[in-house]
Amino acid sequence: MASNSAMSLLLMFAFVGVCMGDVYKVGDSAGWTADGHVNYKKWSATKFFCVGDIIVFEYNKEYDNVVRVTHKNFNACNGTAPYATYATGNDSFTIKNPGHYYFISTVPGHCRAGQKVDIRAPGSLSPPDVGPSPTPSEWPSPAPSPTKSGSSHHSTTKLWLSMGVALLLCVFGIA
Ligand SMILES: *[C@@H]1O[C@H](CO)[C@@H](O)[C@H](O)[C@H]1NC(C)=O
Ligand SMILES: *[C@@H]1O[C@H](CO)[C@@H](O)[C@H](O)[C@H]1NC(C)=O
User: Fold this and answer.
1) Which end of the chain has the lower number of beta carbons within 10 A, N or C?
2) Number of structural domains, the chain?
3) Residues framing ligand 1 (Cβ under 6 A)
4) Ligand minimally distant from the alpha carbon of residue 89
C-alpha cells in the first residue's frame, strides 16, 4: 500500500527532524548549579539526545564551572584529568559522535551535592554500536535504510518507545 509506506516515511522524517540539532539547556530554567538540588540524572533521563544536538550549560562563572571527565572520574567526582574544562558561564557542547559524555562541576562539594550530568547519545535509529566512532566525518546518514538491527540491548528504552509509537501510528494510519 502506497499510503502506508508514505506514512512510514513521513514519520521517519518527523522523528529525524525532532532528533537533530536540538538545543538542550542543562537543568532547564534552573541551569547548572549545586543549589536547589536539581536532579540532573532525572533531567538527562527524560531527554533523547542525538548526534548534532547542542548541550548548553548556563551558570554563574564566579561560582561554577563545567568539566568533562571519564565515566570513572564522573562516578568519583574527580576532575583532575579532564577532557575539557569550560568556565565562561554560558558554554555549549555539540554532540559530534554517538557516545556517552560526562560532566561535573569541580568546585569543591558541588559534584558530590549532585552537580553532575551524563549525556548519552545513541547513533542513528538503528545503532550498531554506541561506542565512539573511529571516523567522525563518516557517520551514517539518517535516511530510511534497511534496519540492520545489531545488538539491541544498547538501545535505550526511549528509542524503543519512540519506534513503538511510530509503529502504532502506522497501524492506525492504515486502519
Ligand atoms: C583522579 O583521577 C586521576 C586520573 O584518572 C587519577 O590518577 C587519580 O588517582 C584520581 N584521584 C582520586 C582521588 O581518585
Ligand atoms: C548564552 O548564549 C546563547 C547563544 O550564544 C544566548 O542566546 C543566550 O542568551 C546566552 N545566555 C546568557 C545567560 O548569556
Assistant:
1) C
2) 1
3) 73, 76, 78, 80-81
4) 2
